[in-house]
Amino acid sequence: MTNTLLIRDVQASDLPEIACLFYETVHHVNAQDYSAEQLKAWAPRVYESSYWEERFRDIQQVYVAENQGQVVGFAELESTGHIGCFYVHHQRQRCGVGAQLMVQIETDAKSQNLLRLFSEVSLTARLFFERQGFKIERQQERLYRGVRFKQFLMAKRLADSENLSGLETDLRRRLTEVLTGDGLDRCAALQWVSETDHPWSVCVWNFQTSKLLTVDQLLSLTEHALDVSVREVDFLTFFESATRHQDWHGEEEVAIATQYRHLVQFLQAELLNLQVFKVGEQALDIYVVGHTRDQQLVGITTKAIET
């Protein structure tokens, strides 16, 4: 069957078949791992085509697996590397449909320079994803329509950030010099002052963009859970206290404030669309990110405690 399988983009005419496939797959295949109450919450009815049209509108890529004119599977890939829906017809299980869908997803993800793929995977689909090279990052529970579901956050790394161009390597070196104070009198490695002072480090991701980074993209690139708390802070506001000279500053404090001003000026000169994200509640991972004129995403990161 798989030798005549076609993986293509979704079309409006596919929506009625997708609606039935989704409902029947949940109630036939996932029934082995979930209760009747859970199945009813998951797929209470065959949704109208308008439901799927609205859902797919905000998804970067929706794939359909077609065999002899019949839709036998579909899957979603978002710009963050997140795989949303991934369903194979209940009568086409273990026939290679899911594997071919995943091959297409990985091919497109690599062409977009995504570092990893990740998905919230059901108990039923766990073994399939493991066979495709995904690993469990954590087990979690999802509350959906008032019913709790056990699932796994699973991910697969596609590439490392080692294959960077000479220009990107040079930028990393110069930014590291700014952070460590190399070449500046009376300067040491910059730390972000909080209850636990922590140094900064440079991040260069194998990801290109000319736009502001979304929260989902940041969480994917930094391998955080999608439900973690994130606050975005204005770039200059974030660094305001660190760059301001105070009357009580001694020689060391003046040098640190000067070094932070040098850092801010360097980032403004080298990167566009600068953003600051605080990830977490009290124990924070802080990311300052922007992109080069060649659209390469670059950032610096540190940790902080806020109470």
UniProtKB/TrEMBL annotation:
GO terms for molecular function: acyltransferase activity, transferring groups other than amino-acyl groups. The keyword Transferase applies. Residues 5-159 form the N-acetyltransferase domain. Its EC number is 2.3.1.-. It is an enzyme of class 2 (transferase). Pfam families: Acetyltransf_10, NuiA. Gene3D superfamilies: 3.40.630.30, Nuclease A inhibitor-like. Keywords: Acyltransferase, Transferase. This is Putative N-acetyltransferase YafP.
